[in-house]
Every structure is written in structure tokens, then in C-alpha cells.
Specification:
Blueprint (H helix, E strand, L loop, with lengths): L9 E3 L5 H4 L2 H6 L11 E10 L2 E10 L7 E5 L7 H12 L3 E5 L14 E3 L3 H12 L3 H16 L10 E6 L2 H11 L4 E7 L23 E6 L1 H6 L2 H13 L3 E5 L16 H18 L2
Length: 287
């Protein structure tokens, strides 16, 4: 999970206000030649019923007639916000039906942060950590089932094709749970700066779930996570090998949080490299 030591500095997005949050797509939809403004995509705010309540989320799919594979995105600890809408829109433009839920719907509606977030501030980080604590493992698993069921109920989803899941920061470990919970549905998993929560000494450690999955994994670790616990990458590789699962585990030349725009640790070159790896994964497993 994120903490103030491995995910330092400010995260800033001027679009982050409750008044403008639902209009974030409109603000960028007409911008020509922008990698974040995908005009061939339909974006819709939706509500997903789960066993624990009603989850606010955003759904993306390509315009026009057709059907496409489903992808679920688990956000980082700052939750559903414009940066993740951008990611969902971009991914949908590549030919996927994408759902980005508010993972903290049990505690608050999105966005759960303001225009400026300082994770080195104990009060700000503590609030987000409390939202995360409200998500039990059982809750995450039941959420994943509800999210995939919602995606599969969409007329744009090609249910004959397998689905993908990707997660960032706290979402990095959650993708392992999703793949283990839905082994017959999830065929591709992307974990980005999932931190050292991927391998723990606890009986519910995400790496212990690998044998229960039927997916190909791309695991992209941050260099500062690797510096604090360099054995994690080796433990992951060993677990994938023992389970005879296909996986790429790589340490990127960037710090925890590097994939998500808006933060001081955002590294565009390495974020794009991770995006290319993710795109290749989906093209080869969800086609």
C-alpha cells in the first residue's frame, strides 16, 4: 500500500472538485491531438450494485457498433479522479470496455481528494488509509465479482473473450485477488508500483494466490520499493515459476506512483514504457 515514505510529495490536478469532477470528460473531449482526449470513446458515469452497497464508477467503451473485451481498473490510494478517467478513456480507445470504480464507495463518493493532496501530511494520509482499511479481502473479492458482472452485462462487452484487470499502488495487490477470485474470466493482469504489499509474511499475501489464477501477469515495480525490499521481485518470480504461470516481473527506473499523472513522482517516459507493456499484454491475451 502507499505510504508517506515511498509516495512523497504533492499530487495536483486542477480538475479535482466535486463541481467539475463529472464534467472532466467534457473538458478534454474536444482537445485535438491530445493523448488524453480520445474522441472515439463514450464515457458514462454509472452505479454498480455490490453486496456492500452502491458503487459510483465510470464506464468507457469505443463508439460505434461492435463488442470488445472487458477491463477493470483498480485505482491507487487517491481513488477515482480525472487522472484515472484519462487512463480509462485511453484504454477504451484501444478497443476495450473499461470500468473504473470508486474503490472507497463504502466511505465516500468520488473524488475523495481535493485539487492538492500531500501524502506526507499525516491527516490527509490517515483519511485515505481509513478508507482503505474499510476494504476487507472478502469485500474486495465480492466487489471484483460485481464489477465484472456489470461489465459483462454491457452490450458492448464481448463475453466470448477473456477479461483483463490492472491496478496501481494499492490496486497492484488487488489485481492478484481479482484474478484468483475470477480465474475463469481474468486472463491478463497488470500490477503497477504495487509496492511490497505483493509479498508479505501473512497467510493472505497476494503472491500466495498465484496458483489460483489462470492469467498472464505483467508486474512493474518501483525502484524505491525494490531498494527497501529487493527480495520481493525474486519471491514473485519464484512463485510464478512454481505455479507455472507466465509473468514478467521488472523494476522500472522510477519511484512509487510513477505511472499516474499529477504527482511529483510521475515519470512520463517510464509510464509510457509501462503502458506499452500493458497494451502488448492485452493484445496477446484478450484478442
Amino acid at each position: 500500500m502507499c505510504d508517506e515514505f515511498i509516495h512523497p510529495g504533492l499530487v495536483v490536478d486542477a480538475r479535482l472538485s466535486r463541481r467539475s469532477f463529472g464534467l472532466a470528460a467534457v473538458a478534454t473531449a474536444g482537445v485535438a491531438n491530445s493523448a488524453l482526449a480520445q474522441t472515439n470513446v463514450t464515457e458514462k458515469d454509472v452505479t454498480v450494485k455490490t453486496p456492500d452497497g452502491m458503487c459510483d464508477a465510470v464506464l468507457f467503451h469505443p463508439n460505434g457498433n461492435g463488442s470488445w473485451p472487458a477491463v477493470l481498473i483498480w485505482t491507487d490510494i487517491m481513488g477515482l479522479r480525472p487522472a484515472f478517467r484519462d487512463m480509462g478513456r485511453r484504454l477504451a480507445s484501444q478497443g476495450y470496455v473499461v470500468l473504473v470504480p470508486n474503490p472507497f464507495y463504502r466511505s465516500a463518493k468520488a473524488p475523495v481528494v481535493g485539487e492538492t493532496v500531500d501524502l506526507s501530511d499525516p491527516a490527509q494520509f490517515g483519511k485515505l488509509a481509513a478508507y482503505r482499511k474499510a476494504m476487507s479481502n472478502d469485500g474486495i473479492d465480492s466487489d471484483a465479482k460485481a464489477y465484472l458482472a456489470f461489465l459483462d452485462a454491457q452490450p458492448q462487452t464481448n463475453k466470448a473473450k477473456k477479461a483483463g484487470v490492472q491496478g496501481y499502488c494499492m490496486g497492484g495487490p488487488m489485481v492478484f485477488r481479482t484474478a484468483a477470485t475470477l480465474p475463469d474470466r481474468i486472463a491478463a493482469v497488470g500490477s503497477f508500483h504495487g509496492g511490497n504489499g505483493l509479498v508479505t509474511k501473512d497467510p493472505d499475501s497476494p503472491h500466495l494466490l498465484i496458483p489460483k489464477t489462470n492469467a498472464t501477469f505483467v508486474v512493474c515495480q518501483a525502484q524505491n520499493d525494490d531498494m527497501t525490499q529487493p527480495q520481493v521481485k525474486d519471491d514473485l518470480k519464484a512463485a510464478f515459476t512454481a505455479a507455472k504461470k507466465s509473468a514478467t516481473v521488472e523494476v522500472y527506473h522510477a519511484n512509487h506512483g510513477w505511472c499516474v499523472p499529477g504527482g511529483q513522482v510521475y515519470n512520463e517516459a517510464e509510464a509510457e514504457r509501462a503502458w506499452v507493456a500493458l497494451s502488448k499484454l492485452y493484445m496477446t491475451t484478450l484478442a
